[in-house]
Amino acid sequence: MLLDKLYSKLSKLYNLIMPFENKRAELAIKLNHVLLTQGITSPTMGSLAHSIGISRASLYTYFRNKDAIVEAVVARHLHFASLNPIPTSFVAEQFPKVLLDSLLFAGSTTERFLTELRLAYPTPANDLAQAQTQRRDQWREYLLRAQRAKYLVDDTIASVDFMMFHMEHAMSAILEAATHKDIDLLHAEEYLQNLVNTLLRGFVAAPEPALKLLAEQGPYEQRILQEFRDTYGRV
Q: Which residue ranges of the chain lie beneath pLDDT 70?
């Protein structure tokens, strides 16, 4: 009987807390999109609320101040990394999904966001930098395993370091061009899709099966593009 009452109270508490936490997580995603392009220093609580379509009072209901927003945004990046780890062993069928995850994580921050984060919030900045470094090291090891399995072309054609350099700098160039409006959103999306196809065709030894698997990742790829639209459509 006592356990039943305790369970009932816990259930009611859960039903009160979860809608709040779910809404807070939803707002953190939208606020992340704003901070990536507008930076951390300039936006006020009022301008942030306006950017995501809620009142200033409502924003304060979920976040006590801008510090709490920054913490939630950084936590979202760290949560993504923990939910989508780089596999410790290589399986060919997983490669397109792992590639998309790596591109999404690599493109989930901007230089402006990172610079202002380091200046204003050194502790979260350090946590994020450590996660980025760790993930980059894991991605490199994964690519080396793929190369040893002869899934990727060998060093005589392209080294793993060159593959990473190409991916990171191409991704960065597209995002920077979109940020500065050197290209419009539609062209930026097209270039991102072309980048994925180019990486598979250029670096996978037998690309056709990988491209077929990529096609099967269509809904996930569209989700990544939607993240891109939600962020860079605000520029």
A: 1-18, 220, 232-235
Fold of the CATH domain 11-232: Tetracycline Repressor; domain 2 (1.10.357)
pLDDT in tens, 169-182: 998 888 888 888 88
In whole angstroms, how far apart are CA 226 and each of 20, 70, 230?
24, 22, 6
Give the tokens for residue 152. 């990727």
Distance CA 96, CA 196 (A): 9
